[in-house]
Amino acid sequence: MTPQATPTTKLRLRSVSKSFIQPRTGHTTLAVADVSLDIASGEFICIVGPSGCGKSTVLNMIAGLDTPSAGAIEKDGVAITGPGADRGVMFQDYALMPWQTVQENVGFGLHHGTPGKGFTTQQRQERVRHFVELVGLTGSEKKYPHQLSGGMRQRVALARLLANGPDVLLMDEPLGALDAQTRLVLQQELLRIWGQTAPRAQRKTAIFITHDIEEAVFLADRVVVMSSHPGRVRAVIDIDLPRERNEHTRADPRFGQLSEQIWNLIRDEAWRAAGAAAAPPEAAATPA
Ligand SMILES: Nc1ncnc2c1ncn2[C@@H]1O[C@H](COP(=O)(O)OP(=O)(O)OP(=O)(O)O)[C@@H](O)[C@H]1O
Ligand SMILES: [Mg+2]
């Protein structure tokens, strides 16, 4: 790495905690406790951990949809105080407008949100065309969401996210509702669109939540492993697999080692979260 390529910090979480008070009982849940993390500009971070460990809560606080009970979150050195077009969010359930076509959905924020306010009609149309093409949906511009497969709907959601020009992408299990094969294809598509072959300075900073360890290893520069009750950062694993990641990546022995290392960090909690009293002895539980 050349000296001028030293990455700058895009997001900084400093001792972030979040408690929720149940209105009916007054009971307090400490959802996230003392999470500290620096995320570099252009970095792709995946967060994994058992159900209920606070992954979505962390993402929502970065999005500005929730506020930390203690600690602080900064973007480019400035405290995050609410939602902003600089941070785009994508969820599992598409969240497309069913009465709008593909191109209307992609252009939604450019008509109704701040990012597109300075654009002429022609610039908006060109921007929509560009992102529809980038996600591989040219020819489907006039279709409605019900005419699309799940994979195509998430392509639309990704195009809409990018059309608004955020510099941070926040994705909460965006591929979680897709079948296994579509998911593999979209993982690779996501890396292409993110720009895995481009210099890091041109990439957006991405945070991606998943339950799928192999998905995390395939996508990420670093995987944040969380543990629950309360939600904490258990480990941060560097994914030292070369980019570009492609169909050969999963055959790399290092891919299997990293997946196993992460599984071993969460296996006990994952078994308990799935209703078992305890995980079986380690040797028997090692994934193939
Ligand atoms: N709005 C809320 N009010 C009360 N409790 C909440 C709220 N949101 C989250 N929690 C609690 O905070 C904890 C963390 O929840 P969160 O949704 O962040 O977990 P998660 O890791 O995203 O889980 P999953 O993998 O199932 O999506 C859980 O105990 C959850 O019940
Ligand atoms: Mg969640």
TrEMBL record:
Belongs to the ABC transporter superfamily. Keywords: ATP-binding, Cell membrane, Membrane, Nucleotide-binding, Transport. The lineage of its organism: Bacteria, Pseudomonadati, Pseudomonadota, Betaproteobacteria, Burkholderiales. This is ABC transporter ATP-binding protein. GO terms for molecular function: ATP binding; ATP hydrolysis activity. Transmembrane segments: none annotated. It comes from the Bacteria. InterPro entries: AAA+_ATPase (IPR003593), ABC_transporter-like_ATP-bd (IPR003439), ABC_transporter-like_CS (IPR017871), ABC_transporter_ATP-bind (IPR050166), P-loop_NTPase (IPR027417). CDD domains: ABC_NrtD_SsuB_transporters (cd03293). Residues 11-253 form the ABC transporter domain.
